[in-house]
Amino acid sequence: MWAKRTFDTLKWPSKAAFRLGLACALWLACSAVPAQAQFSYQDLYDFPGGSGGCNPQNTGYLTQIGDGSFDGTVSGCSASIYNLNPFSSTVFNSIYSFAGSGSFPMGSVVFDTYGNFYTVASLGGANGFGYLYGNISGVSQDLHDFTSVEGQPQASPVLGKDGNLYGITLGNFSGPGIGSAYTVVPTATGSTYQSLGAFAPGLVYAPLFLAADGYLYGTSYDGGTSDFGTVFRMSTPSGAIKEIFHFDGKNGATPYGPLVQDLAGNFYGTTFSGGKNDTGVVFKITPKGAYKKLFDFDSLPQQATNNSGAWPTAGLTLGADGNLYGVAAQGGVNGSGTIFQISTTGAFNKIIDFTGNGGGSAPGGSAVTGLALNSNGIFYGLTSLGGANGLGDFFSLTPVNLKEILIIAGPIFVLPGVPVEIFGNELTQSAEVTFGGVQAQFQVGSDTYLTATVPMDAVDGLVADIFQTGLQVQTLSAIHILPLITNLDPSSGPVGTQVGIVGGGFSAATKVAFGGVQATDFTVVSPSFIQAVVPPGAKSGKVRVMTPNGDAESEEKFVVN
């Protein structure tokens, strides 16, 4: 029987301590040597308490910004939004303090397309159930105070396909105990909150993930047919939920972490419990719900340690080598958790045993935040306990075979002709930037970021930067081109007229309609040009092009005469 382990503090705000952290604090720490010589671990910042923060417990990942540093939140001691800069002697810098207006922020920092950023406080606000924080045009704002009916926010919202933000609260306190979905519509000068209604599968601790098919995918800690949690998807902008998998204990139970997707479209994640030893699993699942357990974490007897680690709370990170990387919150040689690598077929390799408090080769323990892969090819992460002060630390994990990458700052669904900010390294040496192999105009801002305009002929694919030396660096995930109609030529004519539809994002167009009447004769000449014949029965109206990435409608009407 697989017992469902509960972190009460994550569910209900009446308890301030995170049970996982307390449990991990009971383990004795001793020194350990990294198991794999192809990685090096460095302790970059030991949280000291007070204004320097303590016990970071983000449910998602640190967020890279333009200079290569990271933004995040810390809930312990002085609850705040902070910046961690591994390249500066002053690593920690507080950006905003939640004191007096809210507390216990556990979500990531997320940016909208206007450069504003957001997170959530799980407590505080006008109603005591947390609030949505936004920094709009440099001004800190309480954008929405959650109510007992809406539920307490745990994870921050994420960008959807349409450029709006979407999130799910943890659970309400005046009804059936389920949370609610919501959206935030950003503008250059402000943002509007809108509830999308009750959310059914179960309690959600992790942020949603925007997938290649345009849906948002997530995990619920409980719910489903066995009440061991689910994998679900959310449609936008409606917020409609579809459960695609129910955990049964044997194949994993109680997932806390978010999902990640590879280029083939498969998702990967972890469960906190369940599996062969009731210490969690790594799993693979397709968008249609075909599930495969990849790995069972080792057993964790009361007075013994294990090898692999146990009870993974965080999500996985896709590495530049095609493998997945993650952290286990407990277990390992020292009982303080591990860092591990696993292939997409399930080949497991432990990299680091955390050494707990004080010194050792990898100080830190009880890591509950996913590893963040920087554009410089180095992984960065947080532990909620351990380190020199026993209050957690910020660390780096550097592969010997370092491989730099590009990171898209913002949505992965973009319109032709729109500028996109790209993070990288030594970008002043850039000679060419391409979207799916199509050359783009670009402007370098610094060594670590540039802005590239999506070409009208761009197609779905990786974004690449070819340097003057011939070296090519690219993203790990594809960017997806939304359709856009800019012109109709001609803009009027009788049935049977051949019309040129000009724009972009047309490469996989499936349908063309004139005034709501579908054309049976059309040809995609290029990603930016379609030739279509006005069909019998067509009426004057706007022209619509439908693609797997979305639909586009012309601003002008085609007049049938």
What's the CATH class label of the largest domain? Mainly Beta
Backbone shape: globular
Oligomer state of the chains in this structure: single chain
Overall mean pLDDT: 90
Name of the CATH homologous superfamily of the largest domain:
YVTN repeat-like/Quinoprotein amine dehydrogenase
Looking at the structure, the CATH topology of the largest domain is: Methylamine Dehydrogenase, Chain H
Question: Which value, in Å, is the CA radius of gyration?
Answer: 24 Å
CATH architecture of the largest domain: 7 Propeller
The largest beta-sheet arranges its strands as: 42-49-48-44-45
Which structural class do you get from the secondary structure elements?
mainly beta
The major sheet is characterized as: 5 strands, mixed
Q: How many helices?
A: 2
